[in-house]
Amino acid sequence: LPGLSGTSYMTLLWLLNPNNYYHRRNEMMTTDNLDFKHHNYKEMRQLMKVVNEMCPNITRIYNIGKSHQGLKLYAVEISDNPGEHEVGEPEFRYMAGAHGNEVLGRELLLLLMQFMCQEYLAGNSRIKRLIEDTRIHLLPSINPDGYEKAYEVGSELGGWSLGRWTEDGIDINNNFPDLNTLLWEAEDRWKVQKKVPNHHIPIPDWYLSENATVAVETRAVIAWMEKNPFVLGGNLQGGELVVAYPYDMVRSTWKTQEHTPTPDDHVFRWLAYSYASTHRLMTDAWRRVCHTEDFQKEDGTVNGASWHTVAGSKCFPHFYKI
């Protein structure tokens, strides 16, 4: 355009991009005094207490169990009636810190609970509607033992593996029961998929035995899921900048990567894109490729099994963020 420099022209194109307009329209701007820092276990617990004291009518702190080292797995509930399941009101969960040395998810959930409390007090209509219509559970640290181990040494000396696993050496990220294989074996026996119920597959007895290689943290999360009728959840991890949606495990036993959709694939893809499309970088076609993976082919989302197969992963979308 006449009179516009190259930089101004690119800025204009960015402003006219309907996707960017969508980002700006939905972006939550805040001047809240949020606590931007890394929080060890004691500081995390204190911050949760501060949020609860600021918003006692819409928050509740509780724990879902203990870690191998005896640290309580604290969660914060945000709802207009804390501690009460209301019929017809969906229950949602965010959890983070399965790998103890991946800090981002933990801090994002701590920031989220601060943000929602402060915006509720400020009268933000969108936040008030979320809290009144949804019961939200935030579990920022599934593996506090691993975090504390990495925290004590520091990032310069810790390396990528220190604190990643639980105290007894288990990777929580793939420590859940493999229900995919049970479903597919049943479908193969019947040969007609629709005759096989897939809405509730019992956990195998061997997995529930005391001798099974299952972390106490994993058992606590499973008990938490069974106690609360969650309809949706997300797991935040550090690493790639992408939303991974189920299934996480390939159906073909001889493959390590294979697109493996769930019966509700269109719903999961829409949910994944809804998250990625409102993130400033996830759907940016010009951002650098992380390692060798280019997730722009699906606008910052990926079917978990088509990326890399994981048996026994947590059965809901993963939000991987750098």
Content of β-strand: 5-15%
Radius of gyration: 21 Å
Tally the beta strands: 8
Enumerate the spans where pLDDT stays under 50 for 5 or more consecutive residues. 7-16, 21-26, 316-322
The biggest beta sheet, please?
Answer: 8 strands, mixed
Which structural class should the secondary elements be placed in?
alpha/beta
Q: List the total number of helices.
A: 12
Helix and strand string, N-terminal first? HHHEEEHHEHHHHHEEHEHE
- Any idea what the shape is? globular
Fraction of residues in helix? 25-40%
C-alpha termini separation: 37 Å
Mean pLDDT: 84
- Spatial order of strands in the largest sheet: 1-2-4-3-5-8-6-7
Organism: Sphaerodactylus townsendi
Protein name: Inactive carboxypeptidase-like protein X2
Could you characterize the architecture of this molecule?
This protein is an alpha/beta fold and 322 residues long. It contains twelve helices and eight strands. Strands 1-2-4-3-5-8-6-7 form an eight-stranded mixed beta sheet. The longest helix is centred in the middle third of the chain and has 18 residues. The chain is globular, with a radius of gyration of 21 Å. The chain starts with 5 loop residues before the first helix and ends with a strand. The C terminus is likely disordered. This is Inactive carboxypeptidase-like protein X2.
